[in-house]
């Protein structure tokens, strides 16, 4: 599903009106009619129900007037509360307002009056229509708007939001002080970033994207982002040839681990096995070699030169380079810590290794110490998988500053340094070096526990080793990781989920995507490939 920013939607509206000559009030009429159809389908079309429509002073409110008119025609009892003075309503919204009977309109621009005069009506409504603010939201909610949102959220009736729940920023998904919690949101032409990014995504309820007559060439050419759902992820999964053997399913080298963090190394290596790599070698500090031998079965292990304290030494570089000659992908960083010799090793490998690399954890912190190493690197595909803290270090800014604009930060970093960037979090962001951007739709808060990142590193490395193009490996890998987490949550709940639990579900997650492909081809009348 394509998602766009609030600004891109304003541009779509502008082009539809200016370049294609579609009158704005016609778009508003279509928007209001489509909202009404969805409301009636969800909450009943047989009349006799009560609706209170909350309208702001802009065009979102205008959509609300159209909805009010259509609900009246269908026999609903309707009251419209406008949070402005009548003379403040202008343009297309005014065209829709004048079509409403005066006796259902209340103008309520001042804080306090709403609660004192309309509390009873609001409590008695079967449906509250939130047409306060849409893509024009540009500052925190205050005064009577804040009061209205609180009243809507406390009322027992169902809530239908027009375009986006009021108070949610259409581009960042943030709550601007206070925001409506809707049961149903009907948006127009395309979903907006604010519908899928948290915390906005939790306010939307069921999302319907309605066609309001905007020409396809306008909405298709708008700059957008890919929201990765199960259907799109399934399309990325490749079936294995019946003649496959371990030699052509790729060999991953995982360089990881330091004292106290053998688990990170083992998780990354075992996850590469579970994500389908033909062969996996785990190379780790010599002091940890025996432990890794005990904790792994399918994975081969190699002892690397290490300092006395067990951190990877610079002399490990020629040994690793020797191993790389017969490997397809290098996964570097889980649990390696930040010793200066280890940092030098990461820099050295970036400069010499010419095969695809997935770099995580302290591998990223090593890059953050000298970002210019990314410019000096040998020509190779590099996938970086930071969490917000690592992203902030890479970017050189405090975490809250990065969190507020995470998509923009990820895009800038990926473009500037020519890397694939996977910025982890609720709704992981993926960016290709050319700026293509995807937002992951799978996963749950149970995955907020240690080791999950190591698993993701192993998955993406395994997909690259199996021949997935890097952009597909990033998107499929991230989706599979979240889907495996969702499978764990479905079986045992979110709390107490471990990275090992998730890793064990990877084959099932993969299989679910492949089965979905098969169902699709059966449904479309094609012969299934069994
Ligand atoms: N031609 C178009 O542009 C169309 C627009 N449509 C609707 O119009 C909406 C966009 O309309 P507008 O651009 O008029 O914007 P909105 O109706 O979202 O709000 C804009 C008004 O609210 C004020 N405002 C912004 N933030 C506020 C806050 N926190 N508290 C109080 N007031 C605040 C602004 O100063 C402005 O007066 C869309 O979301 C959609 O619902 C649809 O009718 C389809 C066609
Ligand atoms: K709204």
Written overview of the protein:
This protein is α/β, with parallel strands linked by helices and 530 residues long. It folds into 2 domains: 2-223, YjeF N-terminal domain (Rossmann fold, 3-Layer(aba) Sandwich), CATH 3.40.50; 233-521, 3-Layer(aba) Sandwich (UDP-N-acetylmuramoyl-L-alanine:D-glutamate ligase), CATH 3.40.1190. It contains 22 helices and 19 strands. Strands 8-1-10-19-18-17-16-15-14-11-12-13 form a 12-stranded mixed β-sheet, with helices on both faces. Strand 2, helix 3 and strand 3 (77-82) form a beta-alpha-beta unit. The longest helix has 23 residues, at 470-492. The chain is elongated, with a radius of gyration of 27 Å. The two termini are 28 Å apart. 50% of the residues are buried. Ligand NAX binds at residues 13, 17, 24, 27-28, 31, 56-63, 133-141, 145, 162-163, 176, 188, 212.
